[in-house]
Amino acid sequence: MARAGLTTERLVRAGAELADEVGFDQVTVSALARRFDVKVASLYSHLKNSQDLRTRIALLALEELADRAADALAGRAGRDALIAFADVYRDYAREHPGRYAAARLRLDPEAAAASAGGRHAQMTRAILRGYDLTEPDQTHAVRLLGSVFHGYVGLELAGGFSHSAPDPQETWEWILDRLDATLRDWPPA
Amino acid sequence: MARAGLTTERLVRAGAELADEVGFDQVTVSALARRFDVKVASLYSHLKNSQDLRTRIALLALEELADRAADALAGRAGRDALIAFADVYRDYAREHPGRYAAARLRLDPEAAAASAGGRHAQMTRAILRGYDLTEPDQTHAVRLLGSVFHGYVGLELAGGFSHSAPDPQETWEWILDRLDATLRDWPPA
DNA sequence: GTTATTTGCCTAATGTGATTAGGTAAGTAT
DNA sequence: ATACTTACCTAATCACATTAGGCAAATAAC
C-alpha cells in the first residue's frame, strides 16, 4: 500500500488546522489519523504522544503570533505600536481560534524555553519604550498589557460580547485608547 | 450492599472539590465514582452525562463567586468597591483554581440564563455607578473590568508571573489603582 | 408486619481515544 | 538482485463515557 508521507511537520500543521475547525480540545491523535487516512498507531513514529502533539501546535501558534507581531511593530512606535500589536493578537485569535487556544496552553519549562514566549515579552517591552516608564512600573505595565489583551480576546472569543451593543470593535478601540492614555500620562496626575 | 447516598448535590460538590485538587479538565465521571467508592454507571441516575456534571460545577462556582462578590460590595462604593470586587475574583481563583476554571466554561444558552452570570453583570454596573460614566462608556468600562480581571487572574494562575520580580501583589494593586484613575478621570483630560 | 412498589446501585456490553509491541512491505543502499 | 532501513500496519491493553437491564434496599400500602 502506498505511503502517506507523514512527517511531524505535516502532522502539526494539520493539527493546527483541525484545532481551528473543531476547537483545540477536540484535537486528538485519532482525528488526525482519520484526516490522513492512516491508522492511529502510525502517528506514533512522528509524535511522542498526544501531549507532544498539543505542545507542538502551541509552539507553532506562538511562532506565528510572534512573527505577525514583529511585522506589525516594524516602523511603529508609541500609540501606533500599541494598537498594531494589540490588533495582531485579536485578529489572530479571531482568524485562528484553535491555534490561539493552543498558544494559551501551559507549557512545561523546557518547551516554554524553546518557545517564542521570549520574543513576545521582548516586543511588549519594546512597545513600552515609547512611554516614559521606569522599573518597576514597566513590569507592571507589561503585565497590564498581557492581562487586557488576553482577557479581552478570551471574553470576545467565548462569546461574552455577542448579542449586545455597542459593537465590540468600538469597545476594543476605547480600551486601547484608555490604555495608551494611562501609560502616556506618567507619573499620574 | 449498603447504599452510598448519592445525590446530584453531593456529586457536584465533590466534583468541585476534585476540580480544585486535580484541575477542572481532570474531573471525570470515573474519578468521581472512585471517590464515592461506587461503580461508574451509578452516577448516571443523578447526572445526565459528563457534560452535565461540568456544567453543574460551573453553575456552582458562578453562584459562590457571586455570593462572595455581593458580600464584598455591601457598604462599599467607588474605589473601595472596585478593589473589593476585584479581590474577590482573584482570591477565589487562588483558593479554588478548579472551580474558577469551571466558572470560565462556555455555557449553552439555557445554562447561561439560569446561571449567576446576570448577578455578576449587575454588580459590575453597580460598581461603575460610583464613577461618572454614561452609555456607551459604561458598557465599555464593564468590558474593560471583565477583561482585566479575567486576564490578570488567568495569567497569574497559569504561572505567568512566577519567578519574576516585582511581586504579583504589587502589580495587582498598581493595575487596580490605574483602573480606578482611568474611570475617575472622566472625560479624559 | 407482611406485601407491593419504587428506586439506588450493580453487572454487562459497546464505543472511542491513547499507547505499545512487533510484523510486513515500500523505499533506499550495496 | 540483495540487503537494509523505515513507514505504516495489525493486534492487544487500558481508561473513560454511556446505555440496558437486573436485584436488593428503602419506602409505601394494607
Provide an overview of this structure.
The structure is a homodimer of 189-residue chains. Chain A has a domain at 59-184: Tetracycline Repressor, domain 2 (Orthogonal Bundle), CATH 1.10.357.10. The longest helix of chain A has 24 residues, at 50-73. The model of chain A has no long low-confidence stretch (mean pLDDT 95). Helices cover 68% and strands 0% of the residues of chain A. The first copy, chain A, has 9 helices and no strands. With 189 residues, chain A is an all-alpha fold. The A-B interface holds A 25, 104, 106, 136-137, 139-140, 143-144, 146-152, 154-155, 158-161, 164-166, 168, 170-171, 174-175, 178, 181-182, 185, 188-189 and B 25, 104, 106, 136-137, 139-140, 143-144, 146-152, 154-155, 158-161, 164-166, 168, 170-171, 174-175, 178, 181-182, 185, 188-189. Chain A binds a DNA duplex (30 and 30 nucleotides) through residues 1-6, 28-31, 38-42, 44-46, 49-50.
